[in-house]
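Internal ticket #5521
Category: modeling
Description: The requester needs a full-assembly model to guide mutagenesis choices. All entity lines are attached below as received. Residue total reported by intake: 856.
Assigned to: D.W.
Attached entities:
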Amino acid sequence: MSVEDDEVSAPDRPGRRRTARLEAFSDGVFAIAITLLVLDLAIPVTQHSEQRLMDAIGDEWPGYLGYLVSFSTVGAVWLGHSAITDYLDRADATLLRLNLLLLFFVSFLPFRTRLLSEYITTDRAEGVAVTFYGLTLLVAGALLSLLWRYALHARLVRPDTGDEEITLLTHRLTPGLGAYALLIIVGLFQPVVAVIGYLVIAVFFLIPVRIRRR
Amino acid sequence: MSVEDDEVSAPDRPGRRRTARLEAFSDGVFAIAITLLVLDLAIPVTQHSEQRLMDAIGDEWPGYLGYLVSFSTVGAVWLGHSAITDYLDRADATLLRLNLLLLFFVSFLPFRTRLLSEYITTDRAEGVAVTFYGLTLLVAGALLSLLWRYALHARLVRPDTGDEEITLLTHRLTPGLGAYALLIIVGLFQPVVAVIGYLVIAVFFLIPVRIRRR
Amino acid sequence: MSVEDDEVSAPDRPGRRRTARLEAFSDGVFAIAITLLVLDLAIPVTQHSEQRLMDAIGDEWPGYLGYLVSFSTVGAVWLGHSAITDYLDRADATLLRLNLLLLFFVSFLPFRTRLLSEYITTDRAEGVAVTFYGLTLLVAGALLSLLWRYALHARLVRPDTGDEEITLLTHRLTPGLGAYALLIIVGLFQPVVAVIGYLVIAVFFLIPVRIRRR
Amino acid sequence: MSVEDDEVSAPDRPGRRRTARLEAFSDGVFAIAITLLVLDLAIPVTQHSEQRLMDAIGDEWPGYLGYLVSFSTVGAVWLGHSAITDYLDRADATLLRLNLLLLFFVSFLPFRTRLLSEYITTDRAEGVAVTFYGLTLLVAGALLSLLWRYALHARLVRPDTGDEEITLLTHRLTPGLGAYALLIIVGLFQPVVAVIGYLVIAVFFLIPVRIRRR
């Protein structure tokens, strides 16, 4: 058994354990952010308790749309994040910080979603709310891409990873950024179109592409 | 030491780690969904602070019933989910997405429970709230069953799993679906009966059947 | 390498992984329950925003006392729980269910704490709130003890565990039950005394006893 | 294979598993505390729904500042915590309790942040709120430092850790304490200056120092 093998199989190796904590902490933040979205959804309904329930649920469509977009986006970011850590051999100090920055914007999303759901039907303010929402998505996507590029640059990726796999994941993490930037501009004029666009991007990431593995 | 053994004992193997993250993220969402149920329970009581506490707690029975049904259901889904991942050898892209869809409905349950608890005593609306609640349970149950069937289909299950164990788990995950469908129809006419029926199904899943293991 | 050794070192063994998920899910519920306590603490203060802040914080002592007792109790139950799983070799179907039942009462504690904090200064109701609180603590303690006794009974404990260690943990988990039962009776007449008693029990469990290990 | 090796590679070893649960439980509390901060942020905005959204967001700057400081601080404490457990070989009873005490103050931070954000613009009370906030940060920092020193004292640190690495981490965890004490005094006279000071300390910890590793 070579020293190399031994290091790979030892779950106690410092670098390895730090990656495990990065994953556990990130999973916690992702799981809480995605579940907190429902808390915001629950509040408007109780204020309409006098109305008939079906009507009330119908009136709440911006809340449901915001919930759907944010759940899909957090889900897509989590998938990208788990794909990155899947290839990660170890974590260094900078990667941990970049990851914290990404989590900052992920944990910010339930607040942005509430803002979006509340203001999307108000003519004056919806452009602002949708722009803030889009910027948060853009930054989260950019940080996810940066996380992967830094991991490649700092040689934190497992040495046995094939070049094709690296190229595939790099491509997969990038195109969303341009689309987000475009939709932020669209959102200044047509907020609802932008929100539906954000949903389309998230769903696009969620549809599985058969990633070739041996 | 054969190559096979080596793969089994290496906790760093890509597929293996992705399964670990699927489990950690799912556990987070399950844990938050099951604990958030209590937040909804806490709110009505404070509105009755003028009443005598015993009476107030008595008046809150729909909240307690909804809490009990949802806790039992999330608990039962978690048990089924942990049984599935117990046999899982690795996770592929589609399984991760199916799991996200299941978590979507699990994280939706606290909202549905609040709706149920608030409307169950209102004649007009309770049928609608109970129907939505039942549909969420049905879809969650169906996705859990689908998760297992997909894992079998895509050969993601550990190769050393016995056929009897597979058949046992497949049977165990299925019957709830028919019962849920039946109770949704019952719930249109007798909402409280349907809710008690949902409790019975969850408790049925929670009662341990001695699963044969070598 | 014997078959026995191989089983111990394989982190993928079904029974082993189920224990890991039991731990992860339980840790999630414990972590959320212990952190949700603060949410209840935050609410009363905002209602007194007109008062001077120091006075308002002084008026909130029942909230702080309830927070301290519940945090200490959840902390003590988590310590007991981690001591039990530390000796656990594998989990069976019944243990997973007993654990779910324990988590039900743990996740119930933030609600009980809010009730306690709100009603402890109200003459009429405090006896009832403190009795419910004490019963929740008693049941949680009893279930923790039952979890350990079941694990011993069903031979789920690691075979290399010394008899003294088993006796020590069994003793450690038991005495609280009698004290809780006594304090529930005291609480009917002297609620504040009972709450301070619950704090003393939790702190007693939190003070480390030097557990002998090789 | 020596006995030593065997112990290192066995993820089931009691001490090892207890460390894993300490990490998982702590990650849960850190993740919830850092995500709960957003809940407090969301509340004020809805109360200003009549105002123009841009103005409302502008008025909320104390909430955003508090959010930024607390997120950075919890992030910095988590980084320090993960650095400590990275070097941890096993956990003993006292370390688990010290860790619970640290988590008590971490989970307390969202409440303190809400207090800070609400009172920072009120002349009378802001000194008190900022002092309480600073004391919580000071105690959390002191407990983190104590956790590491106790681990060194009780020989819980992995034996293969280099002396330089130990000295580096000890130095890294200490200086914040003096700065926090100084800022608490400053905060009695210039609350906003103190809060910006707390942000500077957190950001200082978050900027990566290249930690030398083989």
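Resolution: model delivered.
Comment from assignee: Residues 3-206 of chain C form one domain.
Ticket closed.
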